[in-house]
From TrEMBL, chains A, B:
It holds the Pfam family cNMP_binding. This is Crp/Fnr family transcriptional regulator. InterPro entries: cNMP-bd_dom, cNMP-bd_dom_sf, RmlC-like_jellyroll. SUPFAM superfamilies: cAMP-binding domain-like (SSF51206). Residues 38-107 form the Cyclic nucleotide-binding domain. It comes from the Bacteria.
Length: 195, 195
DNA sequence: TTTATTTCTTACCATAGATCAAGAGAGATT
DNA sequence: AATCTCTCTTGATCTATGGTAAGAAATAAA
């Protein structure tokens, strides 16, 4: 009798489902477990669906020609994760999705989504909100990249994801910020000295 | 008898509307004209709806504390333009929308959207595609900002918007790319020298 | 515990792009 | 034609961040 406390909570809160309806959905779940450093997606593959992160932590990143990784997104418990383009347009992904910690994922596949849609009155509305939140988030990131120094971007990062900095190695934070690990190290030293 | 050739084309192509249905929608249009250097939106205002650009050219930009402009998006004929966050979440915008050329806009207000939805079978699908295209575009921009030099970003810009570079002053291109006008000038000189 | 491996820090130098200042064109305006 | 204003260019310098290399610290493996 598997339980998915986070996903259950998510269904109840966002989709206003009753307990009994939640169980109907539980039955459809084909959970996916990925151990640390395992991959959920690699370039060239089509990302089949979006995943709900029940537990653990993953990252979505690209690899540029010169061999450098650029982290697009982290996803910890209660987050949704996918290469949206690949899922929606059914095209090969350009990205990697790799587990940073052992992670338990719930694939939001066709059947599961249909069921939620069937049981929830505000399914569509929620999806729209999700997409718009995503866009808002991307816009903020672009704004930061256009206008802010490495130091400010780092401060914004820890403001936005206070716990993440303790769960991922520093070089991944640097990669997310678009700077080298050495630079991040220096930024942190300067910040420590000033206070 | 106003005609909107671009918008008409757009309705027919994207929403599969018949000519007679197009006329039903024409009747609802409250066109908005903005002359060059006029503003469609300023920070603090709520962006009421998305606009279809029938003709002209505009830019959406933010102003950072240190007084620098950062262009988020250009929009020429046949483009949609809005501060999506502000429209969707009904919250005050942080952005300016300013006309670069005299521009004729078609506000996609509540009534107009309802009418299109009523008359078009694939309205929802189209909206979804629009949102996903937007996300894809933002992701590509983030990737570029994270990984590419000013020169490469400039080359990508003229590849993506071949005509735009001739319609906007160079300093606006620089602002879009996240570099200074001086730097862009030098990038262009270097490119010219090499070929 | 000892040895590897990975991550982080630091120092030194290199480079891209920013800043400042001056001038050159190109339209506008008078 | 003369003056303004705006845009673009160029040179000289400055600064933030990158690159390289070495060592320290932490973590995992033996």
């Amino acid at each position: 009798m598997a339980t998915y406390p986070n996903f259950t909570q998510y269904l109840i809160e966002k989709f206003d489902l009753s307990e009994s309806n939640v169980y109907l959905i539980h039955e459809l779940i084909k959970e996916k477990y990925i151990s640390s450093e395992g991959f959920l997606l690699k370039p060239g593959e089509i990302c089949k669906h979006t995943f709900f992160v029940e537990s653990g932590l993953l990252r979505l990143y690209s690899l540029s020609e010169n061999g450098k990784e650029h982290i697009i997104q982290f996803a910890a418990e209660n987050w949704l994760l996918s290469d949206r383009d690949s899922v929606f347009f059914r095209e090969p992904s350009k990205f990697y999705i790799e587990a940073i910690e052992n992670s338990l994922l719930i694939p939001l596949d066709e059947y599961l989504i249909k069921k939620i849609e069937e049981l929830s009155s505000n399914f569509r509305k929620n999806n729209e909100i999700l997409l718009h939140n995503h866009i808002r988030h991307l816009n903020q990131r672009i704004n930061l990249l256009l206008s802010a120094s490495a130091k400010i971007r780092y401060l914004e990062f820890i403001k936005l994801y206070p716990d993440l900095q303790f769960r991922v190695p520093q070089w991944m934070v640097a990669s997310y910020l678009g700077i080298t690990p050495e630079s991040l190290s220096r930024v942190r030293r300067d910040l420590a000295n000033k206070s």
